Recover the amino acids of this structure.
C-alpha cells in the first residue's frame, strides 16, 4: 500500500484534523472524537438545518460540503464505513437551528439506520426532522427496484439544492419537498478503471485486469453491470448517457445539470474528453446544459474512473443550484463576469 | 495504458474543447488550432495583460487559470511539451489590452525561447513586455544554481499575484516587480509515489518499485534527490519543509502561503494528513499560515504524489493573494462568512 499516511488507524482522524486546520474559517470539529464536522460560524438561527453523514474516503463528499448554502453538519465514519449513532445524533444537534432538520444521506443500510435512530431521539424532544435518501446509481438496481439503488455523486447536487433552499428561509417541509423533486430526475452511473485501497485493509478492494474496466461499479467497489475491455471515451460517454436516459429520458427543450466526476486518479483532462462528447450529444438533442460541474466531487480515494450524473432542472431547481454557496470545496464554475 | 480518451493524438485538443464547452462563460479558444485559451470576456482594456503557456497534462495549470484576476491568455502545447511560437505570439496578442503584457512562465528552455521570440515580435510593434520566470523547485538544483531550477506549483501563486496586481490597475513595471518579489521567497518540492503515462508514449514515463517513492521528482518525471522506501506522512512533511527551509529560512513572526498540491492520484485525505503535521510544525515556530491552498493545482495527470510550496508574505502579497479571482479552477478557500 503506497499512501501518504502515518498509520491506517489514524488515517481518518488525522485527515479530518488537517482539513479543519487548513480551513479554519469554514469548519470546526464536534462530537466526542471530532468525527462531526460543523460550520465554524452559523448565524442563521431559525433556518432549517441540513445534516448528513457517511463513510470517509470520498472527499470532498460528505464532510467537505459543510458550508453556507450547503450542509450545517456532517457525521464521519471510518473509510467506507458509516458514522456512529453518537456522532449522527451530535451532528443533528449541531444542525438544530430552530426550524427543523433535513437529513440528506445516501441509500446505505447502516447510514439509514443510525440516522433513523438519531432522528427518533431528537423528535422525542420535539425537534422536527425529515430525511431524504439519495438513490441515484442506475447501475445498482433496475427501475422496478429503484428504491434499493445506491447513492453516489447525486448526493452532491442534493446537498446544494437542500442547502440553498434552507438558506432562502424555506420551511422544513418545502426544503424536503424541493430536494425530493430534484432527485426524482437525477441519475448517475460510474465506470471504474482501477480499484482503490482501504488503508486498514492494506491491499486493493478488488483486482481489475490491466486492460479491464468495470461499468457501473459503486463508489466502494460494489459490483457493476459489466467488466470488459477499455473502450474509447466517446463510447463510454455514449453508454453512460444511454443508461441514464433509459431510466430517465431526456427530450428537446429539457435543461439539465451535468456532473462529470473523477473517482480520484482520473485527471481533469479525461473528464473534459468525456464531457466534450456528452455536450455534443446533448446539444444535438437540444438539451441545454444549464449547470456543468467538472472535477473531484465524490471520490473513492485513488480509484481511477469517472461518474456521470444528470439532473433535469426546472426554473426553481436551476435557481437553487446557481445560488451562491461558500465552502472550501464548492467551486462556482459558472464564472459570470 | 488505461485512460479515458479517444486517441493519443486527439488527447490535448479534445480535452481543451471539452474544457471550453464545460465553462463557456469563462473561456474561449483562439489561435489557429484552438491551442490558445483566452478569457471569454475581457472588459479591462487598459490593464496589464497576463499571459502564460506551457505543456499540457498539468490541469488546472496552466490554461485552467485563465480568468479574472488571473491569466488573460495561455498557449498550450502537447502533453509535457511546450507551446508553439505561433500560439505563444497569438496568446500575447490576446493579452495585449493596451498597458503592456507580463508573461509568467515556468523555467523550461523551450518555453523561455518561444516566449522570448514572440515578445520580440510584439515589442517590434511597440508593445511593452516583461517576463517573469518561475524557478521554485529546490530539488532541481542547489542554491548556487537556483536560476536553473524548474518551475512547478509556485507558478500558480505567481499567476494569482500577477493577476491581482494587474486587476488593481498597476503598471507593467509594478506588476512585474511584485511578482518577482513574491517569487524571491517562494520554494517548492514534490514527492512522487508513482509515474504517469504520456498518452502518445503509451507506457509509464518511469518505473517506481512497489515500495519506492522519489523525493524531489519534477512534474514531468525529472529525476529527484533520492529514491527509497515510503516513509510516514509526518516524516515526508518534515523532510519537505526542512528542504524548503534550508533554502529559504522561516522564523517566528513570518507569514506564509502554503500550497499542498496533489500531483494527480493522491486524494485530499492524504494532503490533509500531510498538512496536519506541517501546520503543527509551523505553529510551533510561530509562523502564521495566512493562505492555505489544498488540492489539485499543478498535476502530472494521474501521477501519485504531492508537492509543497511555501511563499513568505508581506502585507502587499497577502492582500494580492486574497483578492477575489474568478475562474472555474480557482477556489477561495478562505471562506469568510
Amino acid at each position: 500500500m503506497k499512501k501518504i499516511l502515518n498509520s491506517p488507524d489514524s488515517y481518518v482522524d488525522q485527515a479530518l484534523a488537517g482539513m479543519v486546520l487548513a480551513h479554519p474559517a469554514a469548519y470546526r470539529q464536534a462530537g466526542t472524537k471530532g468525527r462531526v464536522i460543523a460550520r465554524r460560524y452559523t448565524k442563521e438561527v431559525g433556518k432549517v438545518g441540513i445534516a448528513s453523514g457517511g463513510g470517509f474516503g470520498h472527499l470532498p463528499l460528505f464532510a467537505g460540503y459543510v458550508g453556507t448554502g450547503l450542509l450545517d453538519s456532517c457525521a464521519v465514519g471510518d473509510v467506507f464505513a458509516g458514522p456512529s449513532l453518537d456522532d449522527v445524533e451530535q451532528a443533528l444537534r449541531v444542525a438544530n437551528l430552530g426550524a427543523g432538520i433535513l437529513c440528506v444521506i445516501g441509500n446505505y443500510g447502516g447510514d439509514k439506520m443510525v440516522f433513523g435512530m438519531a432522528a427518533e431521539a431528537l423528535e422525542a424532544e420535539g425537534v422536527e426532522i425529515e430525511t431524504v435518501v439519495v438513490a441515484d446509481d442506475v447501475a445498482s438496481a433496475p427501475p422496478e427496484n429503484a428504491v434499493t439503488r445506491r447513492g453516489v455523486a447525486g448526493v452532491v447536487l442534493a446537498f446544494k439544492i437542500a442547502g440553498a433552499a434552507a438558506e432562502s428561509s424555506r420551511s422544513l417541509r418545502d426544503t424536503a419537498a424541493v430536494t425530493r423533486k430534484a432527485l426524482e430526475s437525477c441519475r448517475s452511473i460510474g465506470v471504474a478503471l482501477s480499484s482503490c485501497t482501504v488503508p486498514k485493509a492494506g491491499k486493493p478492494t478488488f483486482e481489475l485486469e490491466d486492460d479491464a474496466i468495470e461499468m457501473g461499479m459503486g463508489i466502494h467497489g460494489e459490483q457493476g453491470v459489466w467488466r470488459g475491455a477499455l473502450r474509447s471515451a466517446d463510447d463510454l460517454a455514449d453508454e453512460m448517457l444511454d443508461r441514464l436516459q433509459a431510466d430517465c429520458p431526456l427530450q428537446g427543450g429539457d435543461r439539465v445539470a451535468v456532473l462529470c466526476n473523477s473517482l480520484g486518479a482520473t485527471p481533469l483532462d479525461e473528464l473534459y474528453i468525456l464531457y466534450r462528447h456528452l455536450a455534443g450529444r446533448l446539444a444535438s438533442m437540444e438539451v441545454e446544459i444549464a449547470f456543468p460541474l467538472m472535477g473531484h466531487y465524490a471520490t473513492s480515494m485513488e480509484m481511477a474512473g469517472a461518474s456521470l450524473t444528470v439532473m433535469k432542472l426546472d426554473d426553481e431547481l436551476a435557481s437553487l443550484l446557481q445560488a451562491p454557496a461558500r465552502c472550501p470545496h464548492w467551486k462556482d464554475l459558472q464564472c459570470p463576469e
Observations:
- The first strand of chain B starts at residue 27 and ends at 30.
- Chain B is about 30% helix and 20% strand.
